[in-house]
Design brief:
CATH topology: Rossmann fold
Structural class: alpha/beta
CATH class: Alpha Beta
Helix content: 40-55%
Strand order of the largest sheet: 3-2-1-4-5-6-7
């Protein structure tokens, strides 16, 4: 829990928020962060059991949360997610595109079928989510979109070539959309996590994990809550003059000028 003064600064009490990939990892931590400052959180994820449990935990702690099954690669699922939020809440103020997927494999050993999956989840999915909710944000002349990319998309990453390409596309998409959305008072920003202790990292080979940790100046992996705090900043009014920005949260692994 954050202290009372910071809670007031980051208040989302009158905002309707949505988080993708909210059943675990950074997405779950982001939903918790939004609920912690009184936002109403709609949580979307493929993992229904874990997602419902995560939403129940928030409600059990006094927060406001509702889980809706969501596959960001499926147009019908996105439409159902959108329609339920609009039917229940009337609008969406904040969209955090956190859901992502990747695996380590050298490009020459990869298969086009895997390329499609990584691009669909890491680039096309967030684009489709924005396309669904932007008209409403434009109409109400307010919105905050936070896309979660990766430092792999900024500087490249060994054995994550297609993942890096998709995440790099997400960064470019964020900047271009920010230019379009500014006239409608919709801010679009991007967070680039470094290696973070999530289920995705846990599936990475131990020798690669150790090599990554040695390369990080802080000599540790990030925690999901640390990434969520950066997402929360771009979601709240404290960042009202920020749009089209890309923020690395990586323990100093990358320092991009």
């Amino acid at each position: 829990m954050m202290d009372e003064r910071l809670h007031e600064m980051m208040d989302l009490g009158d905002k309707i928020t949505a988080v993708t990939g909210a059943a675990s990892g950074i997405g779950k931590a982001t939903a918790n962060a939004f609920a912690d400052v009184d936002g109403m959180v709609y949580m979307g994820d493929l993992n229904v059991e874990a997602g419902e449990a995560a939403a129940a935990d928030i409600r059990g702690g006094g927060g406001k949360a509702s889980f809706i099954p969501l596959d960001i690669t499926d147009d019908a699922s996105i439409a159902a997610f959108h329609d339920q939020i609009i039917d229940e809440a009337g609008r969406l103020d904040v969209l955090a595109n956190v859901a992502g997927w990747g695996h380590t494999e050298f490009f020459v050993q990869s298969r086009p079928a895997d390329w499609n999956k990584e691009i669909d989840i890491n680039l096309m999915g967030p684009m489709k989510m924005c396309h669904a909710f932007l008209p409403g944000m434009y109409e109400q002349s307010y919105g905050r979109i936070v896309n979660v990319s990766s430092d792999a998309g900024r500087v490249g990453s060994l054995a994550e070539t297609v993942y890096a390409a998709a995440k790099g596309g997400q960064i470019a998409f964020t900047k271009a959309l920010a230019r379009e959305g500014a006239r409608y008072k919709v801010a679009v920003n991007c967070i680039c996590p470094g290696p973070t202790e999530t289920p995705l990292l846990a599936d990475t080979a131990e020798n690669i994990q150790e090599a990554l940790k040695k390369a990080i100046p802080m000599r540790r992996f990030g925690q999901p809550e640390e990434i969520a705090n950066a997402i929360l900043f771009f979601a709240c009014e404290q960042s009202s003059y920020c749009t089209g920005q890309v923020l690395s949260v990586s323990g100093g692994l990358t320092m991009v000028g």
